[in-house]
Fold Methylenetetrahydrofolate reductase.
Amino acid sequence: MRVGNLYKNQSDPSVSFEFFPPRDDKAESSFYGVVDALSALNPAYMSMTFGAGGSTSEGSFQAVKRMMIEKNLPMVAYIAGYGLGPHEITEVLDRYKALGVETIFVIRGDKPRTDGFTPHPESFAHASDLIRFISDRYDFDLGCAGYPEGHVQAESLEKDVEYLRLKQDNGAQYVVAQYFYDNDSFYRYVDLCRKSGITIPIIPGIMPIYTVKLTRMLCKLCGSTLPTGLREKLDSLTNDKSEAVADLGVNFAFDQCRDLVLKGVDGLHFYTMDRSGSVLKIVQRLKDDGLFK
Ligand SMILES: Cc1cc2nc3c(=O)[nH]c(=O)nc-3n(C[C@H](O)[C@H](O)[C@H](O)COP(=O)(O)OP(=O)(O)OC[C@H]3O[C@@H](n4cnc5c(N)ncnc54)[C@H](O)[C@@H]3O)c2cc1C
């Protein structure tokens, strides 16, 4: 699966689903049920995250392998460079290449929360450096991350976009955007990127609201704003396990996706959090409305 070509050649927008590798045997037994359920929606590809500092390197590889070989699914593998030396990076990439993976999503990653992690002295400071390192050595299609509201450590949104341009110039062929709950922030971001000479596809990331607690925690971590109206609705839902929370998440994401598709995005990338219920409902409703094939 070459994602660079996907967006060039498609006549209609596509969906993709992101997973993280199952943490243990118990998680693994439900994980493949989720994958099977979502593969019925015919996504353009599925993707597998990579834990900072190489923490999930083996688990990510095994999951990608099983999904490609046993389930014949179009896969994208991720690599997060934080703390890894050039040799550790090429070891990971050589295995993916031998497996037949054709697209790598390249991110810097963050300092692992585990104690005692010592970064390799030659590790890559920025995703753009890692993208250059990979594009000089491999024939993978490469993706990179963008941040419609600015990365949490960015000096400014403008500077962040300048660095996104560097990722494109160093070989990235598409961007997946951090999730957002206000589509206007995405449209403004795309405008700013285009004015800055970024021409590659920018695919919106969609994070349905799964639970209120998770949503609040992730928004803080990722720097995504909860618009006032949505925050008030969430505040009014006292039982986080209730159907009402999941329904609100599905309805909100459906409206968000509908607007994005009608405005002409090339695709929708869902952060599934290894769950299938909400994404199945959202994508099925988009299909029923004729917005997706
Ligand atoms: C779609 C998506 C998928 C993700 N998947 C994973 C995953 O699988 N595993 C994981 O660990 N994390 C993942 N992340 C999180 C990501 O690793 C973090 O957001 C991380 O903090 C930044 O990664 P980056 O690739 O955007 O870094 P960079 O592009 O390196 O940017 C990081 C910061 O440095 C600044 N910067 C960039 N280049 C320069 C430069 N040349 N000079 C000075 N400053 C610069 C930027 O403005 C930004 O503030 C994902 C994020 C997204 C949006």
